[in-house]
Amino acid sequence: MLLSCFQEEFLEAGCDEAGRGCLAGPVFAAAVILPKGFVLEGLNDSKQLSHEQRDLLRPIIEREALAWAVASCDHEEIDRINILNASFLAMHRAVEKLHTRPGYLVIDGNRFKAYPEIPHTCVIKGDGKYLNIAAASILAKTHRDEYMSNLHADFPHYNWLSNKGYPTIAHRKAVIEVGLSPFHRKTFNVSDPQLDLFSKAV
């Protein structure tokens, strides 16, 4: 069972990101402050939920949270400052957008660049331990999925409607055959899917 928050002395925002491992598109981050005693059946790490479950939970989180915000860093920023720093910057932007300032941040993962004047704690697999991080993971994931689905209409050969920019074999094959789109991260290597088949054979 997930705990509501990491500590209760200060008003706490849970933070998480989505899209770090993608070949294309932005990295999205969310910050969520939940009310004390918040309970939502089915709320869990977004990776443990289906697309349909995440879409059902998102409007409830957005309606019932004390405050929430979603922000991103685009592919050009990712190429310029690297994906780790872009993930931190997207989280900072999400925190900046909160209409209620938190007194504490709890971050999913093992590293974070400190946000000015707000203490934080990093929690490995925190999205499976704390409800506020789980809520942030769902908002970051659903907002990013929506963004990539909207891009799909203009770039159907990459099948972003299905893979959302992640390096599936079909996505990598399309990049090799068609080339990069304007939304691909140029600093990310796209290996030949045939190499995967070869490595498994040996």
Key attributes of the depicted protein:
7 helices; 5-stranded mixed sheet; 15% strand; disordered C terminus; 202 residues; alpha/beta; Nucleotidyltransferase, domain 5; 40% helix
Task: Describe it.
It comes from Pedobacter agri. This is Ribonuclease HII. It catalyses: Endonucleolytic cleavage to 5'-phosphomonoester. Belongs to the RNase HII family. Endonuclease that specifically degrades the RNA of RNA-DNA hybrids. There is one protein chain. The protein has about 200 residues and is α/β, with parallel strands linked by helices. The chain has two domains: about 10-150, 2-Layer Sandwich (Nucleotidyltransferase, domain 5); about 155-200, no CATH class. The protein is built from seven helices and five strands; from the N terminus they run ββαβααββαααα. It has helices spanning about 50-65, 75-80, 85-95, 130-150, 160-165, 170-180, 195-200, and strands spanning about 10-20, 25-35, 65-75, 105-110, 120-125. It has a five-stranded mixed beta sheet with strand order 3-2-1-4-5, with helices on both faces. Helix 1 (about 50-65) packs across helix 4 (about 130-150) and helix 2 (about 75-80) crosses helix 3 (about 85-95). The longest helix is centred in the C-terminal third of the chain and has 22 residues, at about 130-150.
